[in-house]
Amino acid sequence: MSIALRLEQEQFIQQKLESGKYRSADEVIFEAFRLLEERDKHYEQWLQDTRQKVQAGLEQLDRGEGIDGEVVMARFREKIRIARENQK
How far is it, in rounded angstroms, from Cα 80 to Cα 88? Predict the structure, then answer.
């Protein structure tokens, strides 16, 4: 397989090599792919967790356990007000 890198990417790899942390461009690229794979796994887990939370919320609504939107917004505004006061 052959890939073409943009100038900025080549410069980035060169900077990593000059830092001494990596011995070859291959090492830099392998690390980049490892991090990409790790990020994708975290995203997939987040997506699965979010879907479960949404499903649980929908089930609560179906059971009539929801909170009125105005109440939610009032609580949210109060939390913001308190947070702003604590920053002073």
Answer: 13
